[in-house]
Amino acid sequence: MNIRNEYPRPQLVRDNWQNLNGEWDFFFDDENRGVKEKIYFSGEEFNQKILVPFAYQTEKSGIGVTDQHDIVWYRKHINLIKKGNNRYILHFGAVDYYSDIYMNGQLVMHHEGGNTSFSVDVTDSLFVEGQNTLIVRVCDPQLDESILRGKQIWEQKSKGIWYTNTTGIWQTVWMEEVPNSYITKLKVTPLFDENKVEIIVELNKNCKNSRLNYQIFFKEKTICDGSCNFDGRKVKLQVDVLGEKIFQTNFHGDGWSWTPENPNLFDIVLTVTNEEEIPFDIIKSYFGFRKIHQEQGMTYLNNRPYYQKLVLDQGYWPESLLTAPDDDAFKKDIELAKDMGFNGCRKHQKTEDPRFLYWADHLGYLVWEECASAPIFNTDAVNHLINEWKEIVERDYNHPCIVTWVPLNESWGIPNIQRNREQQHFSQTMYHYIHSLDPTRLVVSNDGWSMTETDICAIHNYSHGNLNETKKYEFFKESLNSRENILRFPSTSWDIYANGFENHGEPMMLTEFGGIGFEVGNQKGWGYTSVSSSVEFISEYQRIMDAVYSSKGLWGFCYTQLTDVEQEINGILTYDRKPKCSLDKIKEINDAYHVARI
Length: 598
Hints:
Elements: E1 17-19, E2 22-28, H1 39-42, E3 48-52, E4 71-81, E5 87-92, E6 95-96, E7 98-103, E8 106-112, E9 118-121, E10 129-139, E11 168-169, E12 173-178, E13 183-191, E14 196-203, E15 211-218, E16 221-229, E17 234-240, H2 244-250, E18 266-273, E19 279-287, E20 292-295, E21 298-301, E22 304-305, E23 308-313, H3 327-339, E24 344-347, H4 354-363, E25 366-370, H5 379-396, E26 402-406, H6 421-437, E27 442-443, E28 457-460, H7 470-479, H8 483-488, E29 508-512, E30 516-517, E31 529-530, H9 534-549, E32 554-559, H10 583-597
Parallel strand pairs: 23-24, 23-32, 24-25, 25-26, 26-27, 28-29, 29-32, 30-31
Antiparallel strand pairs: 1-12, 2-3, 2-4, 4-10, 5-9, 5-12, 6-11, 7-8, 7-10, 13-14, 14-17, 15-16, 15-18, 18-19, 20-21, 21-22
Helix pairs in contact: 3-4, 5-6, 7-9, 9-10
């Protein structure tokens, strides 16, 4: 039985792969005796079944308990026949948090981090043919505060802003068959101002006299092709893809560029040949011509001022928590948000599955990508975050939908950053470190307040009050009226910028606000404000957005939030994605700013 059987790595696609999702053997190792007793050899303790890639805390897993179990084990039998000199790469979409991978009793990899993908070559541990046994040990220590947890609670039941915990495998597991020499990395950078694209391809080893052949397509028409030799393991080339042909046949609207309104994509086919010009590896990918930058207090998309209308997206589902129940769930969330007039989202305290990014690329949807935070500041937490961001940027660099990286949020994990120079240094480090990995996107240093160096002044403000709290609302509106007022009237006890830092003209965005609580059906919980009907919901949304739209200081927003999540009922949609009000009315309000100002 295959669950979540779509191709899991859309930016580097091969034909030969095997989905390993579905039913696995499973057990809780509460006494931590599995390693000592070498159950990766015997396997006698596996007394439960689990449906991968769903965590044991979810209904979809078939277990559905929220009892705390720090150590869990998985087992899967894999049938295959090794072919010639081919290699076999085992991939994990994400496993929370520490994982040890055993193949046929051999420890083949240890990985730390719950947000990102990893892989290991298991060829030498596989039998020539027949049944192979894959065993995964996961340790998710709930009381270790240095771990990047984000919105996951450390207790058995969710409460407040904290949601049910996720332990273990929560994204697709799959096996890939590749040739003895194969492409390991593809990095595509659109050079927007030069009408070129830079392509970097890396092989797993040096291949004498090997060549890279490329074909680039736009709207199913061949735009250009060519070839070049590898320099050792790597090749780096710049291709002028915007020649006369494409301008003659496709220049309309946004032309060849990628925007939420016109998400144009270029397809790539890369073929590696040996010295006899025989192909030995073929991959498919895609890219979008897109540039994001800021100047003069505005964000620019493809050198045009672009007002971002984002919605906060926690990325949870009632039956499957952090794991989307199916691939269509990603598509549905984006389509619903666009139906409401939003042009993107801020994925909050979660690094989302690449399949979400695939749909954002293809449907036209801006993404601010975030990572789960640690609750405390110490050396271990610092190292965890740095290591995680290296893997995040490397994995997701090619997706045109991503326009901003958000390494820190509301001083989580850096509670004293307002005045503490050590924690300020860490914020600056993350800002510069991510820019050193990716100079093509914006970076927000500490979304919410107490920012250090940052490309966007991203503020949070929920002080608008309820419908009848006129004084609160008027102050909220006035505090957003100008750049000067935004800096002068922060909504919290912390200043917008940490001590010693100030705004240098970067655009200001209201990246958390709203949070209208509306109980639908039997769902009970809380919101930042509250209403009792769909009509009141629309009226409250209009009131809050009027204050945002009247601001002469803001250049974009991120409304809280897309859906309810467990006890947090401040979504425009319920937890199971049912609208709480007319989405057409929300769209009218969101579209009004475009009509009024541009």
